[in-house]
Design brief:
By secondary structure, the protein is mostly beta strands. The chain is about 10% helix and about 40% strand. The longest helix is centred in the N-terminal third of the chain and has 12 residues, at about 5-20. The relative contact order is 0.26.
Length: about 130
């Protein structure tokens, strides 16, 4: 897999990382809230031939999310936020049931095979803050 395949992703990351409000416009304060309810849906796929990855695994993901805010707004400018405890409940479904390996977390080479699953995942979600 060549670097050209990853250029659109790198460009999108660059644009989102450098986006900022108009000059002179300060950041808007966060509205007061105490909890968050949300969900995310997405798709993931491994990349055969990227590194030592040989197995293709595709997943469809559903994630429920509950959060409780522990503080008010902290920080200033682009580096600000609120401290939040979050519980996420994932449901990950393998698209190809013939695939036996799902997700690789290194076993520190204590057993064979120790094949990596280099992958990408896209998630889209909605949260409601109260």
């Amino acid at each position: 897999m060549s670097i050209v395949t990853h250029l659109p992703v790198a460009g999108l990351l660059f644009l989102t990382a450098t986006a900022s409000p108009a000059r002179g416009a300060g950041p808007l304060p966060f509205p007061p809230r105490t909890f968050e309810l949300g969900y995310q849906v997405g798709y993931g796929i491994t990349h055969r031939g990227f590194g030592a990855t040989r197995t293709q695994v595709q997943t469809v993901d559903f994630i429920g999310r509950v959060g409780y805010f522990q503080s008010g707004e902290l920080g200033r400018g682009w580096y600000r936020g609120e401290f939040e405890h979050v519980l996420e409940i994932p449901l990950d479904l393998a698209v190809d049931p013939a695939t036996r390996s799902y997700h690789h977390i290194s076993n520190a080479s204590t057993a064979e095979p120790n094949e990596p699953l280099n992958s990408s995942k896209v998630l889209v979600g909605i949260s409601v803050f109260r």
